């Protein structure tokens, strides 16, 4: 699942270990999220959004929701 986790973590000057500690997960779990090898549970996504004070939708991309570009009719 595409996300902005690495960018936000850098903006907040947090290491993976720092973020993991705040979330109550392992550093490896944070790495798996950042490298898109794992999708967060709903609970974890909400905890992440609270730490960064952003909505879940602003951090994680919904893979089942078409992008705005895909919704636009083609200009012919």
UniProtKB/TrEMBL annotation:
Instruction: Tell me the keywords, alphabetical order.
Output: DNA-binding
Q: Does the keyword DNA-binding apply?
A: yes
Molecular function (GO) terms listed? DNA binding
Looking up InterPro entries in the UniProt record yields: Cro/C1-type_HTH, Lambda_DNA-bd_dom_sf
Q: Output the SUPFAM superfamilies linked to this UniProt entry.
A: lambda repressor-like DNA-binding domains
Which SMART domains does the record cross-reference, listed alphabetically?
A: HTH_XRE
Q: Where is the HTH cro/C1-type domain?
A: 5-59
The source's domain of life comes to Bacteria
Q: Which named protein is this? A: Transcriptional regulator
In its UniProt entry, the species of origin is given as Corticibacter populi
